Amino acid sequence: MWRLPPPFLSCMCSTAGRVVWGAPRRVPALLRPLPPGLTCVFASGKKDVTDFPVLDEDELEEQFVRGSGPGGQATNKTSNCVVLKHIPSGTVVKCHQTRSVDINRKRAREIMREKLDVVYKGELSEVLVKKKEAELRKQDKRRKANDNLERKRLFREALAADPKPGSGAV
Amino acid sequence: MWRMSLCAGYRSVGCRIVGIKGLWGSRVVRTCSTPAIPAGRITALQAVDLWTNHFVERGVMEPDHSSLHILAYLLGAKTINSLERGKLSEFLSPEKTEQMWRLCSRRLSRMPVQYVIEEWDFRDLTLKMRPPVFIPRPETEELVELVLTDVDMRPGTGAGVDAPHTCLEVGCGSGAIALSLLKSLPQLKVIALDQSQDAVDLTGENALRLGLQDRLQVYHLDVIKDAETVLSLCRHVSTLVSNPPYLFSEDMDTLEPEIFRFEDHAALDGGIDGLKVIKQILTLAPQILSNHGRVYLEVDPRHPPLIRRWVEANVEEMRYVETRHDVSGRPRFCILRKEKSNKDHKLDLD
């Protein structure tokens, strides 16, 4: 099932952050795009809650440069770029934002969730919705600013036509 | 004096300047010990290019990552990508250029980057690094994750509700594991041991820098030589965690120079089968742990079946729970649990 009701979703997220990654296994994709026509259920009224999809570790393939040797204490490398691939959709995320592999892996997953949201929800994805909302707010602001200017202009014109209000009819 | 052109596309090839005629005459040399600091100003990117090429020439591993990490550090950032876009094209000040040269020259001697810049990150912590104290490896970040995940699953294990629980770390090094656990578990107390005074000092320093010193005790003890003292200090511990020296002695000679020349061999060499310290930890574990207490070990990929067999034959009260793999898919972590037999329950108040 693609979408879970919001409370369950947030619970899943906190667990997902703590799962220890084993060697990924390949299983049939559990994530499916929503059937057309079915609208997504967003957490209503909460501006900051983002309903990005939950990741299934079984569908992810992770590449991290550790060399072909034994790794561990026998190796000291500073390259820590993480490459994460979502097998069903072919989406790839690269992350080398920090000097910690652990943090890069977690960030890669966050970015993957955002990307998958766009991939699967298209127009309805969180990123695009937010973009649209920002654009609408901008347009709204512009319109209000224009209205203001218009009002001021009319007021000035009225003053010019009648410089002494209350001095009697012109 | 080695002069450089300031055009953006300039690339150096060691001290053999390609394409510039007549500037050097008889002073062209095939290799130099260290490139001289340029007379004119250079940009950050040019400095990186120059040193990357020099590292390549001298066979220094990770030539590009090395220069980038050092430069980022000098410009006050953790990584290159966190720098503002234009920064790399800006000229370096004379001071920064001199620092770049000084630090990169240390890297030429194969000193690990972490020792060159004297710091590194472990999970969400930045730790001070100093030779010869062992540099934390990425696998060990997963060890901490394992412990934290388990703590969530186990009832009443320091997650806040019950009385504070104690964790023992054997071989704390720079303090990476101990301090990560302390940071994530506000109720936890940690006792950390290391046979190296340098490690004890560095762990203490890092604890102070992170404000975690109140719940941490660090002791200069060898778990083999000072076993009695260790046992007197540690009772009713709920978790024992360790990244003990686990390399096989025969593998020490093939270590890369970064490790062999600069890191404490005692933090790496686990004896003929790499199990010397591990076996001692597991021998002492039943007396250190409270019942159902757990041991988390990072080990060599060959160890898990050996450890399981050995424990079953030699340590009655420890049960082998499971083996976990690291992100490269190698068996890397062993989890064991203390299970006291019924007859002991009557004799001990534990």
Major sheet attributes of chain A: 3 strands, antiparallel
What is the string of helix and strand elements of chain A? HEEEHH
CATH C-level of the largest domain in chain B: Alpha Beta
Chain-averaged pLDDT of chain B: 88
Give the strand order of the largest sheet of chain A, numbering strands 1, 2, ... along the chain.
1-2-3
Our count of domains of chain B comes out at 2
Q: What amount of the residues of chain A lies in strands?
A: 5-15%
Largest interface: A-B, 29 and 52 residues
Under CATH, the homologous superfamily of the largest domain in chain B reads Vaccinia Virus protein VP39
Q: At CATH's second level, what is the architecture of the largest domain in chain B?
A: 3-Layer(aba) Sandwich
Structure in words:
The complex is a heterodimer of chains A (170) and B (350). Helix content of chain A is 40%, strand content 9%. With 170 residues, chain A is mainly α. In chain A, strand 2 and strand 3 (91-95) form a beta hairpin. Chain A is elongated, with a radius of gyration of 27 Å. In chain A, 18% of the residues are buried. Chain B has 350 residues and is an alpha/beta fold. Chain B is 37% helix and 16% strand. Chain B has 12 helices and 9 strands. Chain B has helices at residues 44-57, 63-74, 94-108, 113-116, 138-153, 176-184, 197-210, 227-233, 257-262, 276-288, 303-314, 342-347; strands at residues 119-122, 125-128, 166-170, 189-194, 216-220, 237-242, 289-298, 318-325, 331-338. In chain B, the strands form 2 sheets. Chain B has a 7-stranded mixed beta sheet with strand order 5-4-3-6-7-9-8, with helices on both faces. In chain B, strands 1-2 form a two-stranded antiparallel sheet. In chain B, a hairpin with a 2-residue loop joins strand 1 and strand 2. In chain B, helix 1 (44-57) packs antiparallel against helix 2 (63-74) and helix 5 (138-153) packs parallel to helix 6. Chain B is elongated.
